[in-house]
Amino acid sequence: MYALLILDIQVGLVHGPEKPWRGEALLKTVNALMDQARSAGAAIFLARHIGPVGSPIEPGSPLTMLAPELTLLGGEVVFEKRRPNAFEMTDLADNLRARGATGVVVAGMKTQYCVDSTCRAARDLGFDAVLVADGHTCSDTAVMKAEDIVAHHNATLDGPFCRLVRAAQWRF
């Protein structure tokens, strides 16, 4: 059984000064994945990245709130994380196992940080990791365009660290 894990679709990343590549498309994809997960009875987990006190994403900051475009119906598990890897210093793995999940479908932000490290960690913890190829994004950096970052990570992670699928191909 698979659970859906959505990483850091929060106000500061979606609506901040560095706009995510294909941001609107990502929100639609994530909402469609949540609808599908609900229909299948799969658990939905949403991570919110929290930074240290004094940072723009300190505890309680409105920038850490989930993006209002997400369709939340109340059955989702929302949790805070403080590291890029959503399993590190959280009870995510225990909560997944308690719900009978043997695999995790990963979507969200940012590709090169939280998406990457969470996919790698999921396999290390014994979960079948599935990355939604068109379900994660980031912003341009000084070195690389976001579109290239996403393509690079899809190619790098697929196989050794996760199974890559397009959202339209996935079924819970």
Automatic annotation (TrEMBL):
<protein>
    <submittedName>
        <fullName>Nicotinamidase-related amidase</fullName>
    </submittedName>
</protein>
<dbReference type="InterPro" id="IPR036380">
    <property type="entry name" value="Isochorismatase-like_sf"/>
</dbReference>
<dbReference type="InterPro" id="IPR050272">
    <property type="entry name" value="Isochorismatase-like_hydrls"/>
</dbReference>
<keyword id="KW-0378">Hydrolase</keyword>
<dbReference type="InterPro" id="IPR000868">
    <property type="entry name" value="Isochorismatase-like_dom"/>
</dbReference>
<dbReference type="Pfam" id="PF00857">
    <property type="entry name" value="Isochorismatase"/>
</dbReference>
<dbReference type="GO" id="GO:0016787">
    <property type="term" value="F:hydrolase activity"/>
</dbReference>
<feature type="domain" description="Isochorismatase-like">
    <location>
        <begin position="3"/>
        <end position="140"/>
    </location>
</feature>
